[in-house]
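hey m, so remember when u said the tokens were messed up on ur end? i reran from scratch. heres the input so u can diff it against urs
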Amino acid sequence: MDALVATQPDVIEAALNYLAPGTAAPFVYAEAPPPGMPARSGHNEAHRVAIRDARKLARHPSLDVEGFELHAHASRVTDFYDDDAVRRIYYPEIDALLRAATGAAKIAIFDHTLRNTEVGRGGRRIREAGAHVHNDYTVASAAKRVRDLLEPAEAEARLQRRFAEINVWRPIAAPVEAWPLALCDAQSLDWQDLVVAERRYPDRIGETYAVHFNPRHRWFYFPLMRRDEALLIKCFDSATDGRARLSVHSAFEDPTTRPDAPPRESIEVRAFAFF
């Protein structure tokens, strides 16, 4: 562990944005909404929670227990804003990483997102950090996404066996100080905390989970994540044998961040693992 990482506090307290009680099923339009419709519905409320340094745990968190795990993982990509390099070099690197980490028979990478907390960076279409507690897939939308991606016969065959959706998140520039990622221990999550939220596209409607506050939630983060580290986050697992099925997560404003800290630049790759 780097000396600077070792000096980070064991626990910090920060605000996480949860779905407010009594909020009807929320939605958000990915693009401009139809005339007369709001861009989104529902509202959040902030709760201050303890977020523990996962680097200092006696046992490293894992995909099947907590729902997330950290890997040392260098990439040959030099510019993650180069879409061709990401698809040509990085996708195969992530395929190999996920096969080794999960033992999956097949990995299907289907998209990636760049995020930058610096507003308007170069006019590029780069999303800001997702600063609300959420999960990227629901039971229904995970299966639907498989059917969208694979040929019908293969999709139905794959859905008869265990499959999982895993996001691979990494910094792509300086170590992350601003807006790090908080991860909820799957063992502390109650499925009754989850609320289906619609993400409406021009040609389809996706589903994610918004999350109600529960004081039982246990939160962790990996301070000062570096470009040569990759964080695996399980966003869905079809297995119901007691292993973690998902880890809700959120970017958060770290109160220990230096005022002159660089913006957070990161990439997340989304993939299905089929067993």
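this time it looks ok to me. The first helix runs from residue 3 to 6. if urs says something different then somethings off w ur setup not the seq
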